[in-house]
């Protein structure tokens, strides 16, 4: 803790007055006398920001600045709230804030996923808090829920939906909307990342997954090692076939400790990507920007967290809760983590979708490629009514090793009748695992 005498009110320096920063000002104002006050706001183009509709919620005597040092070095800032995102320059700013003995609250999942270990060590050495409840699942208290409420269990698996934009896109497509249109809506509503690839290609979700893995599984994993599959290849026909299989499609992030820890100590299995989700799974019930995280504990069983995972107000709620925790002097549970490697491979049933120029022998060729890698076909689905010049059909497999299927998919992609790269999705298995 800094030696500087703190005032009774926690004085907040806000980095970023965008969607979340401005919503935070409004949420804070709604709390009246919460013992928290914004004293400084840093943003580029301050004059324009001061004209923002929500700027009225920032106290009139707060200093607005375009120089970040005016916040990081200010004697009247006890806690820096960082809502800008990205690794650079946010990392250096937060290092400077922590080094100066200031608490930090951040919504920056990339920073916590990639640099968390060093930043937590720095915060601890300075005796200050580094809280990041808004980094995963926006307004859903997954992080404090795991850190406080579930620290008594031994969590072995986390799965769920942690990207609101993808959920918004896929659940809208399930109701018939077109991919491009809903992506634009998500961007206009402020859910999406600045670069839509971060959402749709799974990079946002895998950073969040790594944050959860550290907290829940005590596994420090490198986000770059987590295989991420895009949702951009999912189309209306996949929802039609998924429905026939009693499923829908969602972007699922999952991480679990290796089943046989005595063989695979120090390894987790993890991946992010679109999956076929049975309608009987709670994960299939999430719509719009809703996030849903299911933790599986050895003693307490499954716990489901759900709510709005993106957007200014839900995210600002998580930021506000962290700021309040600091203002009240809450004590954090320490959850040390160790470095672990990631394997992307899983044994699971899979959904394979092909779009072909029809001719005899196609099913035989596909079956041959699957037989070569030892994958057993469970079903073949082909809707009537599509012209033979562009025929979509689906094969589902019995539980198979994903890397083996990828091998077969690579062979099949080269077949002359294949009109687009074939799609391979894992089918989520709902297991009603009982607790011990
Ligand atoms: N782009 C993110 C999402 C924002 O859609 O979930 C919240 O992290």
CATH superfamily of the largest domain: Dihydrodipicolinate Reductase, domain 2
* Alpha-beta classification: alpha/beta
Mean pLDDT: 93
The count of domains is 3
Cα-based radius of gyration, to the nearest Å: 24 Å
* Shape descriptor: elongated
CATH secondary-structure class of the largest domain? Alpha Beta
Helix content: 25-40%
> pLDDT below 50 for ≥5 consecutive residues: which ranges?
1-6
Tell me about the biggest sheet?
Answer: 10 strands, mixed
For the record, the CATH architecture of the largest domain stands as 2-Layer Sandwich
N- to C-terminal distance:
42 Å
Report strand %. Answer: 15-25%
Number of strands: 20
Q: Ligands bound here?
A: L-homoserine
**Number of helical segments?**
14
The CATH topology assignment of the largest domain is: Dihydrodipicolinate Reductase, domain 2
Quick description:
33% of the residues lie in helices and 25% in strands. The chain contains 14 helices and 20 strands. The longest helix is centred in the first third of the chain and has 18 residues.
Explain what you see:
This protein has 14 helices and 20 strands. The protein is an alpha/beta fold. It folds into 3 domains: 10-131, NAD(P)-binding Rossmann-like Domain (Rossmann fold, 3-Layer(aba) Sandwich); 142-308, Dihydrodipicolinate Reductase, domain 2 (2-Layer Sandwich); 347-426, Alpha-Beta Plaits. Strands 7, 9, 10, 11, 12, 14, 16, 17, 18 and 20 form a 10-stranded mixed sheet that branches. The model is unreliable at 1-6 (pLDDT under 50). Bound molecules: L-homoserine. The site of L-homoserine has 11 residues, from α7.
């Amino acid at each position: 803790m800094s030696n500087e005498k703190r005032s009774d009110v926690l004085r907040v320096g806000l980095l970023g007055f965008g969607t979340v920063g401005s919503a935070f000002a409004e949420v804070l104002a709604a709390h009246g006398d919460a013992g928290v006050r914004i004293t400084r706001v840093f943003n580029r183009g301050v004059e324009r920001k001061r004209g923002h509709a929500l700027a009225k919620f920032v106290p009139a005597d707060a200093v607005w600045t375009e120089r970040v040092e005016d916040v990081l070095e200010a004697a009247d800032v006890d806690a820096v709230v960082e809502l800008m995102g990205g690794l650079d320059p946010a990392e250096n700013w937060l290092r400077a804030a922590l080094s100066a003995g200031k608490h930090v609250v951040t919504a920056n999942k990339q920073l916590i996923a990639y640099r968390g270990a060093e930043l937590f060590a720095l915060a601890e050495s300075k005796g200050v808090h580094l809280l990041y409840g808004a980094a995963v699942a926006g307004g859903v208290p997954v992080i404090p829920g795991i850190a406080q409420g579930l620290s008594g269990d031994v969590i072995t698996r986390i799965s769920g939906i942690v990207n609101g934009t993808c959920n918004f896109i896929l659940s809208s497509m399930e109701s018939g909307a077109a991919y491009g249109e809903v992506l634009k809506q998500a961007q206009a509503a402020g859910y999406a990342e600045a670069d839509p690839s971060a959402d749709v290609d799974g990079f946002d979700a895998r950073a969040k997954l790594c944050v959860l893995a550290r907290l829940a599984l005590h596994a420090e994993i490198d986000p770059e090692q987590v295989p991420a599959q895009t949702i951009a290849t999912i189309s209306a026909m996949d929802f039609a076939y998924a429905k026939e299989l009693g499923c829908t499609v969602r972007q699922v992030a999952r991480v679990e400790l290796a089943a046989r820890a005595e063989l695979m100590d120090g390894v987790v299995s993890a991946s992010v990507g679109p999956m076929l989700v049975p309608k009987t799974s709670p994960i299939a019930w999430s719509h719009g920007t809703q996030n849903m995280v299911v933790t599986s504990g050895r003693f307490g069983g499954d716990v489901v967290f759900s709510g709005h995972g993106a957007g200014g107000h839900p995210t600002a709620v998580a930021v506000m809760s962290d700021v309040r925790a600091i203002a009240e002097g809450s004590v954090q549970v320490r959850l040390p983590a160790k470095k672990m490697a990631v394997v992307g491979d899983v044994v699971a049933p899979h959904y394979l979708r092909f779009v072909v120029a029809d001719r005899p022998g196609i099913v035989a060729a596909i079956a041959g490629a699957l037989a070569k890698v030892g994958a057993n076909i469970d079903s073949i689905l082909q809707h009537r009514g599509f012209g033979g010049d562009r025929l979509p059909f689906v094969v589902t497999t019995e539980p198979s090793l994903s890397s083996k299927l990828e091998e077969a998919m690579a062979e099949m992609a080269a077949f002359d009748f294949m009109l687009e790269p074939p799609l391979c999705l894992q089918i989520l298995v709902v297991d009603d695992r009982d607790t011990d």
